[in-house]
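Example record

Each entry pairs one chain with its bound ligand, zinc ion.
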Amino acid sequence: MIIGSHVHFNNEQILGATKEAISYGANAFMLYTGAPQNTQRSAINKTYIEEALKLMQENNIDLNNVICHAPYIINLANKEKIDSWNFSISFLKREIQRCEELNIKYIVLHPGSSVNLSKEEGIQNIIEALNYVINPQDKCMIILETMAGKGSECGATLEEIKAIIDGVNSDNIGVCLDTCHLNDAGYDMQNFDDFLDEFDKIIGLERVKCIHINDSKNPVNSHKDRHANIGYGYIGFPTLIKIVNNNRIKDVPKILETPYINKNDNEKELVYPPYKFEIAMLKSGQFNENLFNDIREYYK
Ligand code: FE
Ligand code: FE
Ligand code: ZN
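C-alpha cells for the complex follow.
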C-alpha cells in the first residue's frame, strides 16, 4: 500500500517533510512548498534535497509518491479581476518551477471557483489559464482535484474535469481523487468499483495519479467539504478500507488530509497529527475505537 499524509515544509523543507512522513510510518507524502494561504516562499535549499533523497531511499519512499499541493489562493476560474487571474497564473507557474527544482512529479490543483460567473465560463477560464501555465518542457504534471461542489467550485463532477482535460493542449494533465470531496459532490463511495467504472468511461483510470483518503463529516451530496478522521465520518471505515485496498488503484499514492486532534474534548485547538495512527489502521484493516485517546497519549 502506498500511503502517507500531508506534511510540513517549514523546517528543513523537503528534508523535514521526509522526516515527518517517516515518523508516521508513511511511504508517500504531500506538501505545500510554503503557506497555502500566502505567497511568501523561501529559496529551495539544495543540501536539504540531497539529504532528503538519501533518507527517502533508506526508508523506501519513491520520489514518484511525493506530491505537491498548489496553494489554494490560486483561482484560475474567475477572470473578472484580471489582475488576480494573472497573478494566479504566474504564481502557479512559480510553484511548478519549485517542483521542478525539487524533482516532484505531481502538483495537485483545485480547478477554481467561478464566483459570479457561470460554471461554463469558469471552466473556459481554467482551460485558458492552464494553456498559459503548462510548459511542454516541464516534467511536473498538474493533477486536478475533484471538488465537493461547495459554493461555485468547478470540478465537482467528472464531466467538468473531463471538459478541462479536453480543453488543455497538452496530455501532461492528470486527476487527484478526494474521497471526502467525491462523497460531498454526490458520488457514493460505498460502490467504489462502480465509481471507478464511471471514471474510466468518462476520463480514463490512467489519469488518476493521487487519491486523498478522507472521511466526511457530512452525508453524500452535501456539498460541504469538511474532512473527518478515518472511520469517524459518513463514509466509514469498511468503505475506506475497500478503497485503499482496491487493486485497480494499487499503484496510486494515497494521502490523508484528516483533521488534527485536540488535547482533550473541551479544547478547540487541534494540535496532534492523527496520521501515524490512521495509517496503521488502514494498513492493518483494524478499526481503532480508541483512536483519539491513543493519539493524545502518544504525543503528550
Ligand atoms: Fe486539495
Ligand atoms: Fe483533498
Ligand atoms: Zn477538502
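The chain has one domain: 3-299.
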